[in-house]
């Protein structure tokens, strides 16, 4: 694997760094306090091509490889994980899945709008009763002529109150377990679909997280994504690539923690010297630095495997597991360097820790990643 960035990749990284410095970082604390990112950011993300990365140009995408996608995601995560999540879900979980599984009409209908930011996507898998055991979901889609009538509740849906379309997973037919699940692209203004914003999150407070309730929502059969009964495979393929995106966002958090800790340690004086001169403070900083590098290398490896058409699912679980735990550790270590100032939100590191915490929970908890890795190594499913 070549660890040098190409000129093109470096240009994309710089574009993302400039964008984040101008459009994201200056507002991140205010958005966190207000519990709402300014929605204007979506169009801005679309206009610089960040919502269309890796998507084919014929469908409005901006092309690029998965390493470039990681670089942009890292910079966004460095600035504000709430904004990073908007892209990871709308592009990473929805648009890329439409590109991979969609028919020509579905691609033409949704990809140009999702890539430009004219429409936003959300991913409706989790339910109040099923999180880790997602294949056991209860939402039902019952055939009615040329349509399906869909009823059920989806929980913790990122972009939920903002999105124009939900990639929704529902049970079709009577087959129990994950084999009876199908995927649908459902416009969120469909009659019978209501949304309730979820407030009071520990982190990612700027993000529009919602509960979606569907009561006999009429969905044409042509909105099914992928074959009937293959919805769980659609979801798992989306999440495998999504985990790379979460991992890249975590690298961004850890890098931001490192930048902040080094800067503060040089400025803050105690016992007549900068705290950077104390070995125990340097230990905190060097632990963060090793976590940044290790998480970044694991994440880039996933991008490299995808771009070379190799199997990447286990590598993605390893990267997501390591990078999410590393982001929590790094933000916590940075908070220690800041002392009491780390505990108030005028300084950046408390938010990094709050935002990092959920990364070990969503798109498969750390325990679930370990079961995926363990199954790949032993051949035995321990779920
Ligand atoms: P549970 O599955 O109930 O797990 C509880 C605990 O039990 C965890 O520690 C877990 O690791 C452990 N556990 C469960 N099963 C096992 C096992 N077999 N072995 C060992 N331990 C086990 N979902 C979406 O569909 N779309 C979204 O956009 C989305 N965004 C989210 C945003 C936020 C902010 C949050 C908090 C969640 C989001 N989720 C989303 C849901 C998220 O993916 C789930 O919360 C996650 O999968 C865990 O499910 P759960 O919360 O039901 O926990």
Which structural class do the helices and strands define?
alpha+beta
Major sheet description: 8 strands, mixed
How large is the radius of gyration? 21 Å
Topology, number of strands: 10
- What general form does the structure show? globular
GO molecular function: oxidoreductase activity
Pfam families: Acyl-CoA_dh_1, Acyl-CoA_dh_M, Acyl-CoA_dh_N
Protein name: Acyl-CoA dehydrogenase family protein
InterPro entries: Acyl-CoA_DH_CS, Acyl-CoA_Oxase/DH_mid-dom, Acyl-CoA_Oxase/DH_mid-dom_sf, AcylCo_DH-like_C, AcylCo_DH/oxidase_C, AcylCoA_DH/ox_N, AcylCoA_DH/ox_N_sf, AcylCoA_DH/oxidase_NM_dom_sf
Describe this structure in words.
Its cofactor is FAD. Residues 122-217 form the Acyl-CoA oxidase/dehydrogenase middle domain. Belongs to the acyl-CoA dehydrogenase family. Residues 229-377 form the Acyl-CoA dehydrogenase/oxidase C-terminal domain. It is an enzyme of class 1 (oxidoreductase). This protein is of the alpha+beta class. Helices cover 51% and strands 15% of the residues. It is built from 11 helices and 10 strands. It has helices at residues 7-24, 28-34, 40-47, 66-79, 81-101, 104-116, 231-267, 279-307, 313-338, 349-357, 366-378; strands at residues 121-124, 140-144, 147-158, 165-172, 181-187, 193-197, 209-220, 224-225, 269-270, 273-274. The strands form 2 sheets. Strands 1, 2, 3, 4, 5, 6, 7 and 8 form an 8-stranded mixed sheet that branches. Strands 9-10 form a two-stranded antiparallel ribbon. Helix 7 packs parallel to helix 9, helix 8 (279-307) runs antiparallel to helix 9 (313-338) and helix 9 packs antiparallel against helix 10 (349-357). The longest helix is centred in the middle third of the chain and has 37 residues, at 231-267. The mean pLDDT is 97. Bound molecules: flavin-adenine dinucleotide.
